[in-house]
Write a structure and sequence with these properties.
The complex is a heterodimer. Chain A is α+β, with helices and mostly antiparallel strands. Chain A has 8 helices and 12 strands. About 0% of the residues of chain A have low confidence. In chain B, the strands form 3 sheets. Chain B has a 5-stranded parallel beta sheet with strand order 2-1-3-4-5, with helices on both faces. In chain B, strands 6-7-8-9 form a 4-stranded antiparallel beta sheet, with helices on one face. Chain B has a 3-stranded antiparallel beta sheet with strand order 10-12-11. The longest helix of chain B is centred in the C-terminal third of the chain and has 14 residues. Classes of the chains: A alpha+beta, B alpha/beta.
Chain lengths: ~450, ~220
Amino acid sequence: MRLALINTSAFRLSVGYMLLVTLAVGVTLGSAYLLTESLITDEVDLIIDTELQSLEEKFQRSGIPGVTDEINLRIDSWGRIGAVYMLADARFERIAGNVTDWPFEGMPAERWPEFEIGTIEPGRRAVHPVRAAVRRLPDGNLLLVGTDISQGRRFAEKFRFATLWGIGLSTLAAALAGFWFSFRLARRVGEVASTCQSILAGEAGRRLPVTGTRDEFDALAVSVNHVLERLEEQAGTLRATFDSAAHDLRAPLQRLRTRLDALLLRTPPLEASVRDSVESALQEIEHLQRTLATLLQIALAESGAPLAAAAAVDVSALATELVELFEPVAAGQGLTLTAEVAPGATARGNRQLLAQLLTNLIENGMKYVPRGGRIRVGVQSLGAAVRLTVSDDGPGLAGPERARAGQPFLRFSSMGDGSGLGLSLVAAIARLHRAPLALEDNAPGLRVQLDLPA
Amino acid sequence: MHVLLIEDDTEAARFLVNGLRDSGYTLEHAADGRAGLAQALSGRYDLVITDRMLPHVDGLSVIEAMRARHIATPVLVLSALGGVDDRIRGLKAGGDDYLTKPFAFAELLARMEALLRRHPSAPEATRLKVEDLELDLLGRRVTRAGREVELTARELKLLEYLMRRAGQVVTRTMLLEGVWDLHFDPQSNLIDVHISRLRQAIDRGAERALIHTVRGRGYLLGLEP
């Protein structure tokens, strides 16, 4: 049996697992990213703040010229890499620094405004992002200190890139692992299921595969195999019991019958009245024999033994032949027996048992449907199944009686004579064929419907 | 006719031996499988009747051993095992017919007769003729005294079965098995009705009836026995 992968619990589990992995990796990398980014910015801000402070102190000590000198000094010689300075007057005109024009529209509103400056690097023009802070000096001039943050930006960008890839790859890995896991699980469960199916279909000797890896599936398979062995043993014992019961009951019946037969063959012949008694005794034996055969067959079918001698049976032909066989007798009873059979419907089964089933249903109808009634045998092909119906317009069965109809030895108030095994055997044969059996109200009458797997 | 009966149930065997001797057969009886096998392998019988469940060697093994030595003597299996697959197993082992216990003595007689009269090597006939009744197997046509008789396909099959065993008693069970391939007994008088229909078609207006009912046994096609 193949399981649709998407329906398996393993698949659902691994989808959940995949989402969880994605979430966990996303949160971890995302917070690391945010943390690192703020760490970098904080460091930049601290440096800018410190420089502004030292330049403000310079202003207090030696005024604008001192600041200008200091700025020029820092730009020229020992300034840090990527440092940006500008001293401007109140109208934002440059006094000193390595930026040519005031980068903002007037005074920036934010505490840490950012802007871009064009630079010339070996061979190309580049635009660098700059993070800065602006202070108004006591004399109204403006002091701008900034840092080229392109390095940090690049780092952040790489970090972001790595984060996204990390999330993507771990999701992919989780998905692959989950798929592999659920595929493997589905395959092993599928093996178990298909083995069970073939055991049910009659290969009683089949066992679940044990891989030898000692995993939980092996443990399960070993236990199930024990159960199967026990069941097979029990079926064998049951079969032997049936055989000996059949033998022990049939042998005395045989002796009885042979004795009576011998009486009939005697010369000179028996007196007519004695002969009649002997013949009716023989009929009783025949009845007994038939009941015994039916009982044994029901018992065998109910024992879970596989269907014997299963082959493709032309159900259409079988139904037609049986209707043809019974039609003259039915007509003699004033009943109309008809076949409405779609040609060529075949199902896997045992021809003799299916013939017995149909015979029982037809005989049942002939027993209970009053003169003038109709019995109809139908065969339809439903694709995956062959539907066999026997319906009549007789007295039918009341709802609760229909529900109990498959039980052995059940006779119904509305039914007269009969061993009461007919419908039980029908039910047993249906079960043996794994064919759902339904008894329905034919309004009026009884409609028995059997869906044989094709 | 020389018949070997292998049966461990002594009482049943005694009745069968007596009954069959009265019916004109020469009988030898073996009470278990080993003795039965030794006798059967001598090959001097026209027919072997064996029970299936026997002490020492079971009935099916007896048949298999016979067939392995190319002894083609017809074998009739008697068995208390009447399941569908039991029958198939019996015939697969090389049995020629299978009778489930308890059976009527008349049934046994009829089946023995059928097995003894069988000529497996006879060439397939294309026409069957009994008195003035003729069946053309190729054209599926039947004539009685030159006059054509209309029959259904099933009636034709029934007639063919009877004509192939003309002069022998054929039981209802044999007809159910041979013509309808049904190996169980339906309860109604099905076969009687079909025979009487066939009789209507064949014997009506004819000078002498060809299809006869043999009381307590079955039917016979041919001139009055």
